[in-house]
Amino acid sequence: MTRFLYNTFIRNLSAKIAATPMMATVLVVFVGCTLWTVWYSFTNSRLLPTGEFVGFDQYRRLFATSRWNTSVNNLVIYGSFSLVFTLVFGFILAVLMDQKIRFESAFRTIMLYPFALSFIVTGLVWQWIMNPTLGLQGTMRNMGWANFTFDWLNNPRMVLYALLIAGLWQGVGFVMVLMLAGLRSVDDEIWKAARVDGIPTWRTYVSIVLPMMRGVFVTAVVLVGSGIVRLYDLVVAMTDGGPGISSEVPAKYVYNYMFGAGNIAQGLAASTMMLITVLIIIVPWAYLEFGGKGRRS
C-alpha cells in the first residue's frame, strides 16, 4: 500500500510541481475571494469591510431597490435577445462560410475582427454611430432626409436594443468561428449519405448536423451567457446607464455601490447574486459535459 501511494505521488511529479502555482492561485484568489465576498455581503460594511453580521438585510434591501430591479430586468431582456441572436446569426454565418467560398480567410478575419476589440472601444464606436447629432441620424438629415430619426441612445424604450446591436456586432464573429469549427468536424461521408438518401440540405442540418454539434452549442451558450452576466464596459462606454437608469445592468450597480456610494456590503450582495447566476449557467454545463458522459459510460 505504501509503495502504491509512493508510485502515485511520483507519477508525473514534474507536471504536478508545475501546476502547483496555478492551483494555489485558484484556491487563494478565486475560491478565497469568493468566500470573502459572500461573507461580507451578510454584514453592514460601508467604506471598509469591518461591519457586523446582519443576516439577509443587504439582500432584502437589494431586492427592494428599484435600480437593482431595473438592472436585472434590463439584463434579462438584453441577455435573452443577445443569446438567441448571437447563436442564430453565428450558425447561419458559419453555414455560409462552410460552402468553400472564395477568400474565405479574408471574410473570416473580417467577421472575427470586432471580437479583438475591447467593449470600451466597441461602445465608443457605436456611440458615435448612434449619436443623434454626429452619427447616422445627422448624416441622413444632412443628405436631405430631414425627418429621419435614429435616436435610440436617448430613447429609454430603445436604448437596450442599441446596446444589443453593438453587442451582436462584437460577439457574432466569435460564435461563427466556434460553429464553423464544429461544422468542419462533421464527416463528409455523412453529407454524401444524406444526398444519396435524398434528404434536403436544411433537413440534414436540423436532424443530423445540429445534434452532432451539441457540445459546440453548449460551449457557445456558456461563453456567451457568462459574458452577458458580467456586461459592464459596453454600457459604460455607450450610455453610462442612461437615460436615467433605463440601461442599468447588475455589474454597473455593483461598481457604483462599492466605489461610488461607499456601500461595500450592498455591492457584495449584488455581486453574490451575479455569482449565483453564473453558477446556474455553469453547473448544468458541467453536468452535461462530465456527469452525463460518466453516466452513459
From TrEMBL:
Keywords: Cell membrane, Membrane, Transmembrane, Transmembrane helix, Transport. It comes from the Bacteria. The keyword Ubl conjugation does not apply. InterPro entries: ABC_transporter_permease, MetI-like, MetI-like_sf. GO terms for biological process: transmembrane transport. It is a multi-pass membrane protein. One of its GO terms (cellular component) is plasma membrane. It holds the Pfam family BPD_transp_1. It is found in: Cell membrane. Its main location: membrane. The chain crosses the membrane at residues 21-42, 75-97, 109-129, 158-183, 204-229, 264-288. Residues 72-287 form the ABC transmembrane type-1 domain. Belongs to the binding-protein-dependent transport system permease family. This is Sugar ABC transporter permease. It comes from Devosia geojensis.
